[in-house]
Design a protein that fits this description.
The protein is an alpha/beta fold and 800 residues long. It is 46% helix and 15% strand. It has four domains: 166 residues, 2-Layer Sandwich (Beta-Lactamase); 114 residues, Glucose Oxidase, domain 1, CATH 3.50.30.10; 108 residues, PtsI, HPr-binding domain (Enzyme I, Chain A, domain 2, Orthogonal Bundle), CATH 1.10.274.10; 327 residues, TIM Barrel (Alpha-Beta Barrel), CATH 3.20.20.60.
Length: 800
């Protein structure tokens, strides 16, 4: 077992809270840097002993099958005893800790009737004893022990600190246990394979060489990108084309006239099928550009395509072979053009080629249904392919290529199907019938996972379902503290399908509707009527609950292909968001009119992103007034008093919040961008990602100043960034006086439960305290201690 060197010092006992927070943060860093050799556990006991003036610190690992505790790491006892000292839970003071699942203290351990002496440890000179259980979700993983030679009583503060330390240690011990089981299983597998090889060799001596089928399947972990959250377990189903040009008859067998007629009939049938597919997609995911099917239909109706097929048939080849050559020629010519639009046309040509070939071969479009749980695996899938899959037993989607904003990814997310894209080599590694786990949260795929991994995901699924059943009763209850302070909990949504999730989880409204996704999926800017139809369905779907619509937030990492933007050196500081809208009034005005028209159907608010100056917000308001005038002149209804808000997501807007409060009706703090602008950290950059810290004192000060400015002006203020979905941040945000938290629908019940379990005066005190702190370590320690005191650890564990 590796031992990590710790720099020697002359530490003093840690009795104040700040020192305890430092120790927690230091242990957190050790765990974050843990390698596969298990050295992190040794580093933890070294750190505890040396920085708390404890002569002994040890960790025992618990084996539930044997009901046995094994010394796993120690500072102070004989290192040779590690791995060799074992005891039943019925033995020793350590066993009492395991039995009671509570801290056990002894001023003179040697005089305790349950004391068990292990001569190999050399512990006979240590008298005082404190043991705390290391527990994860009610399951004992081990015991943390400290000892001193001086007889002493541990203070309540020290006991609390050790219990706090045991919580992050639990996650590390869980990893150690799982790694040990996997290594044991791998050794068993190798041993079994060795025995099989020996048997084959022995058999070969008498019967000649024979190849015996191997039943062992290798365990593989594929990394990709999360396209739709959640996790699913099922057997692999490899998506393959229903037909292929590989096996077609190439020579024409009959008259050319008959072949031409057969080709034209197949094209007509493909056109009718495209129209039906378009209608189905529009009903399922209206944000996605169903015009792709119109473009394909127009290609099929173009005489250039069918004329080329006719000419090739006249040369003596079959209709199928003529189609194959036509598709190859058109695809090649489009791919040679250095333009994204024409490269997309090449994909369309391939898709319609497959569609027409199916009809030539008499293979109709069929919905794929599954009798048991499956995970669909493909290199990539067309939107129409995924729309033809029955979703009842579809547990996940794995794509070797594709992106998180592809049409297929958008549809999978709207259907709540866990999806991982960009999983390299998925097509070569995964085979039909393989056992798969798709973790759409982490962007990971497990192929033929060991039983321990399967059990862990099954356990997580059971706990998640039980946790949510408990939260269902909160759906129609307000997010109100024990002393009556009420917070609005709204949903962030990007798809109309998310409306059902928002209602299911008890959202009070929509705090952020991201309008850019339809623009990213379409081939051109949406018209006013197309946008109005989406907003109309959103407002009506929310059944009278307020809806906040954010205008286009294009740019940075979200440029539509048709915008033809040159690459910027620093896109997050470049031409994006409201800057694009103000420079393209021909695009901005139709959106403003569409939002105004939707306001006649229910409570709608409009919100403008990335505002950094008063000139910008005044120009925006002028364009909005102009849109109102145009609708009035046309006799179109809208709400003349529709509320106007802006996002505070750049430092300039926070500093000018008092001035902006005179211009708008409400603020929404966009923490995703605000944090990275305040801290100068690109959170997508792995080198500096750990510096992206929502609980940084500078971030909290900015949020507090923005809320205070809004309150002084009598304006409401919300948060709609990822920070709103983090239960660790909820108590501080509510304590700062936030009116509205807007998060993904999934997080709403947990946030409600947290708010309903506290008093507003307590979280106000917490917020006042963290604003006086100067480091992230101190802030996290303060929040963590408050959460423990309020008995809210179960919520934190479920969402960590």
């Amino acid at each position: 077992m590796a031992r990590t060197a710790i720099k020697k010092s002359n530490p003093k006992p840690m009795t104040d809270r700040r020192q305890g927070w430092w120790l927690l943060e230091e242990i957190g860093r050790i765990i974050a840097a843990e390698s596969t050799d298990g050295g992190g556990i040794q580093a933890i006991v070294d750190t505890i002993a040396e920085h708390m003036s404890m002569e002994v610190a040890s960790i025992y690992l618990y084996d539930p099958d044997a009901r046995e505790l094994t010394l796993w790491a120690t500072h102070g006892l004989d290192s040779a005893s590690v791995g060799n000292v074992k005891m039943s839970v019925d033995e020793g003071l350590t066993g009492i800790v395991a039995q009671k699942m509570e801290p056990v203290m002894a001023v003179d351990a040697l005089a305790h009737p349950r004391y068990k002496y292990f001569p190999e440890t050399g512990e006979e000179r240590y008298h005082s004893f404190l043991g705390v259980p290391v527990v994860e979700r009610g399951r004992l993983l081990g015991v943390l022990i400290v000892q001193t030679s001086r007889r002493r009583r541990f203070t309540p503060a020290e006991v609390r600190l050790f219990r706090a330390i045991a919580i992050p240690v639990a996650g590390l011990l869980a990893q150690v246990q799982l790694r040990a089981r996997l290594e044991s299983q791998e050794q068993e597998r190798l041993s079994a394979q060795q025995r099989l090889d020996e048997a084959v060799n022995l058999l070969a001596r008498y019967e000649g060489p024979k190849r015996l089928p191997s039943t062992a399947k290798s365990h593989v972990r594929l990394a990709g990108f999360s396209a739709a959250p959640g996790f699913g377990i099922g057997r692999a189903h490899m998506m393959k084309p229903e037909v292929s040009f590989a096996n077609i008859v190439r020579e024409r067998k009959g008259p050319a006239k008959r072949e031409r007629a057969r080709a034209r009939l197949a094209v007509r049938n493909a056109i009718h099928e495209l129209q039906a597919t378009k209608q189905r997609i529009q009903e399922t995911v209206p944000e996605v550009d169903a015009a792709v099917f119109d473009a394909q239909r127009m290609m099929l109706e173009d005489e250039t395509l069918i004329g080329r097929i006719d000419a090739l048939i006249e040369e003596g080849i079959s209709a199928e072979a003529a189609l194959e050559r036509t598709v190859a020629e058109l695809t090649s010519s489009f791919e040679k053009l250095d333009d994204g639009y024409f490269k997309d046309r090449a994909l369309d040509i391939r898709d319609i080629g497959q569609r027409v070939l199916r009809h030539m071969l008499g293979v109709g479009e069929q919905r794929r249904s599954f009798k048991s749980a499956v995970v669909m695996v493909a290199t990539d899938v067309a939107l129409s392919d995924l729309a033809m899959v029955e979703h009842e037993n579809l547990r996940g989607v794995v794509l070797a290529s594709g992106g998180v904003t592809s049409h297929a990814s958008i549809l999978a997310k709207s259907l709540e199907i866990p999806t991982v894209v960009g999983a390299d080599h998925a097509g070569e590694v995964i085979h039909e019938g393989d056992h798969l786990i798709v973790d759409g949260n982490a962007g990971v795929v497990y192929v033929n996972p060991p039983i321990e991994v399967v059990r862990e995901y099954e356990r997580l699924e059971r706990e998640y379902r039980a946790f949510n059943r408990d939260l269902e009763r909160l759906r129609d209850m307000p997010a109100e503290t024990l002393d009556g302070y009420q917070v609005t909990i709204s949903a962030n949504i990007a798809l109309l399908a998310d409306v059902n999730l928002a209602l299911l989880h008890g959202a009070d409204g929509v705090g952020l509707y991201r309008t850019e996704l339809p623009f990213l999926s379409h081939r051109d800017f949406l018209s006013e009527d197309e946008q109005f139809d989406l907003y109309r369905r959103l407002v009506l779907g929310m059944e009278g609950r307020p809806v906040t619509i954010r205008t286009l937030d294009l740019g940075a990492d979200k440029y539509p292909r048709y915008l033809n933007m040159p690459r910027e050196e620093n896109p997050f500081l470049g031409w994006r968001s409201i800057r694009i809208s103000l420079e393209m009034p021909n695009v901005f005005r139709p959106q403003l009119r569409a939002i105004l028209r939707a306001s006649a159907l229910g409570p709608v608010r409009v919100m403008f992103p990335m505002i950094s100056s008063l000139d910008e917000i005044r120009q925006v308001k002028w364009l909005l007034a102009e849109a109102k005038h145009e609708l009035t002149a046309a006799g179109v209804a809208f709400d003349p008093n529709m509320q106007v808000g802006m996002m505070l997501e750049v430092p300039a807007a926070v500093y000018l919040a008092p001035n902006f409060a005179e211009e708008v009706d409400f603020f929404s703090i966009g923490t995703n961008d605000l944090i990275q602008y305040i801290l100068a950290v690109d959170r997508s950059n792995r080198k500096v990602g750990p510096l992206y810290e929502p609980l940084h004192p500078a971030v909290l000060q900015c949020i507090a100043n923005a809320i205070a400015a809004a309150k002084r002006a009598g304006k409401r203020v919300s948060i709609c960034g990822e920070m709103a979905a983090d239960p660790t941040c909820t108590l501080v945000l509510v304590g700062l006086g936030l009116d509205d938290l807007s998060a993904g629908p999934f997080f709403i019940p947990a946030i409600k439960r947290l708010i309903r379990a506290v008093r507003f005066e307590d979280v106000q005190s917490l917020a006042d305290e963290v604003l006086r702190l100067s480091t992230v370590t101190e802030v996290k320690g303060c929040i963590f201690e408050t959460i423990r005191e309020l008995g809210l650890i179960d919520i934190m564990e479920m969402y960590r």
